[in-house]
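> run fold DUF4262 domain-containing protein
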Amino acid sequence: MEEYERNILAHIKEHGCSVTSVLDPDGDQPAFSYSIGVAQSSDAPELIVVGLDSKIGHWLVNEYNRRVKAGERFSPGVLYLGFLEGFAVQFGHVARHYRSEYMRSACWLHGGPNFEALQLIWPNTSGIWPWDPEADDWFRSN
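> ok
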């Protein structure tokens, strides 16, 4: 077992999950952060946050973990408060092929992409969602 894998397992044991943040060094792709172990520790879907600064993404994954450990559950298409100050967020299902592509350490833990995962979806500062006609191409693609 590699050192980073031992660190992941230690974080899961201590906190209920580990968080991985990925940055594109060229800046061509959006940053993303995701959970590893929430499904095991809380019997809730893993989480990915795309397009936000890694510190914010990391915090959001930890907040999700805290809330699911307390028994809260999240459903796609429902507005939730308390994640981003002044804004509601929503959740959407993450397709299996995206779990394989982006959530690699979670796939390692689960032995493949056969686990549930949600994406935390946020509006821009004007309250526009990625699927709204007013959303720009960058926001829509994240």
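The longest strand covers residues 87-93.
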